[in-house]
Write a structure and sequence with these properties.
Radius of gyration: 20 Å
Strand content: 15-25%
Shape: globular
Distance between the termini: 23 Å
Helix content: 25-40%
Strand order of the largest sheet: 3-2-1-4-5-9-14
Structural class: alpha/beta
C-alpha cells in the first residue's frame, strides 16, 4: 500500500508514519518541515497551499491520512488567517489534487472534538439542552458552569456522540468544522470514502512544547520543568478526555485499512478518545507526581473560546473499527514526563 501522510513531520503524523513503515508500507510524507521525518519515507517538502506540491504528493497513492493542521486556540483573532490558510485552504488544495489524480480510495481526516463546542448537557427539568456561550461577567465572577438556557439551573454533562450538532466556539474549531464539510462535499463528488477521526486531547512523547499553540499537558509540563507550579485556569474542574498519541496512530491505521469503515461517497465521523474523563486539575496533578515540583495553582483565569466540559462517547469507534484506547493516562503522562527536554516542531499536527 502506498500511503500519503500530510503533516508527517508533526506530532501524530510522525508516529503514524513510523508504524506504517514498520508494517512495510510505502509512505509519502508531505510537510513543510523536513526535519524529524522518518528516513524510510519519501518526503515531498513543501506547503499544502502549493498546488504543484500537492500534485506531486498524491501521485500514485492508494490511501491518504490528512494530519497537517495548525492546532490550538491560538493567541488572538489575529491568527484567524493562519488557521484558515493552513487548515481550510490547505485541505481544499489537497482535495483538488486528489480530484485531478482521479483518486477514489480511502481518505482519513484528522478532525477534532472542538467541532462540538460545549459538550452534551442535561437539565433535571428540561432534559437534554445546549447551553449558550458562557458570559464574560459570569466567568469574571468565577461562575464557570454553563447554566440551563431554559431555567438557569445547574446542568450535568454526558458523553457526546458523533451525531451531536456542530457548534464551534473558536476560530480553530470553525476551521476544523469547515474541513469536515469540504471533505464531505469532495467525497460525494469523487466517490471516495472518508473516515473523520475526531481526536480528543492528544498527548504523549513528542508533544510540542513552549509555543502559543501547545496543549494544556505540554504547558503544565513546561512549567514543572522550569520549577514552576502549573497554572490551572478556571477552577480546574473542566472535564476532558485525554488519548495517547500511540492510540491515535493505531486508530488511523485501522481507519486506513478497514474497507468497511466507510462506503464510497460518504464521511463517517468517529470519536477517538479514551472514554475515561478527567479534570484539568487532575491532569496537572498527575504530571506533578510524575515530574516532581510544586503543586498546581488554580488561578481562576479563563480564556475566550474555551468550553467547560466535552467528553466523547467511544462506542462508535469500537463498533466500526474495533478501536479502544489502551494506554492509561498516568502511564502516558509518565512517558511524556520522562522524555528529554526539547521543543518538537509545532507547525503541524
Amino acid at each position: 500500500m502506498r500511503a500519503l501522510v500530510t503533516g508527517g513531520a508533526g506530532f501524530v503524523g510522525r508516529e503514524l508514519v513510523r508504524r506504517l513503515c514498520d508494517e512495510g508500507h510505502e509512505v509519502v510524507v508531505l510537510d513543510r518541515a523536513a526535519e524529524r521525518v522518518d528516513p524510510r519515507a519519501e518526503l515531498v517538502h513543501g506547503d499544502l497551499a502549493d498546488p504543484a506540491v500537492c500534485a506531486a504528493a498524491v501521485r500514485g497513492v492508494d490511501v491518504v491520512s490528512h494530519q497537517a493542521a495548525r492546532v490550538g486556540l491560538g493567541k488572538d483573532p489575529g491568527d484567524l488567517p493562519l488557521y484558515a490558510a493552513d487548515n481550510d485552504l490547505g485541505t481544499a488544495r489537497l482535495l483538488a489534487a486528489l480530484w485531478g489524480a482521479g483518486f477514489a480510495g480511502r481518505l482519513v481526516l484528522a478532525s477534532s472534538m472542538v467541532v462540538y463546542g460545549e459538550g452534551r448537557y442535561r437539565c433535571p427539568a428540561h432534559g437534554e439542552v445546549r447551553p449558550a456561550a458562557r458570559r464574560r461577567e459570569d466567568l469574571d465572577a468565577g461562575r464557570f458552569e454553563a447554566p440551563c438556557p431554559e431555567c438557569g439551573g445547574p446542568l450535568s454533562w454526558a458523553l457526546v456522540p458523533e451525531s451531536a450538532p456542530f457548534d464551534p466556539r473558536s476560530g480553530y474549531a470553525a476551521t476544523k468544522a469547515a474541513q469536515e464539510h469540504l471533505v464531505s462535499a469532495w467525497a460525494r463528488e469523487s466517490s471516495a470514502s472518508v473516515v473523520g477521526l475526531r481526536y480528543h486531547n492528544v498527548y504523549g512523547p513528542g508533544l510540542p512544547r513552549d509555543t502559543p499553540y501547545a496543549g494544556v499537558a505540554a504547558i503544565f509540563l513546561s512549567s514543572l520543568l522550569r520549577g514552576e507550579a502549573p497554572a490551572v485556569f478556571e477552577d480546574g474542574g473542566q472535564a476532558r478526555d485525554f488519548v495517547h498519541v500511540g492510540d491515535v496512530a493505531r486508530a488511523n491505521l485501522l481507519a486506513l485499512a478497514d474497507p468497511l469503515a466507510a462506503m464510497p461517497g460518504e464521511l463517517v465521523p468517529l470519536n477517538v478518545c479514551s472514554g475515561r474523563p478527567v479534570t484539568i486539575l487532575e491532569v496537572a496533578d498527575s504530571l506533578r507526581r510524575a515530574v516532581g515540583g510544586p503543586a498546581p495553582v488554580v488561578t481562576g483565569r479563563w480564556r475566550p473560546g474555551d468550553v467547560r466540559h466535552v467528553v466523547a462517547d467511544p462506542a462508535q469507534a469500537g463498533k466500526v473499527l474495533g478501536f479502544s484506547a489502551e494506554i492509561a493516562l498516568d502511564e502516558g503522562l509518565a512517558q511524556l514526563a520522562a522524555e528529554p527536554a526539547g521543543d518538537p516542531p509545532a507547525s503541524t499536527r
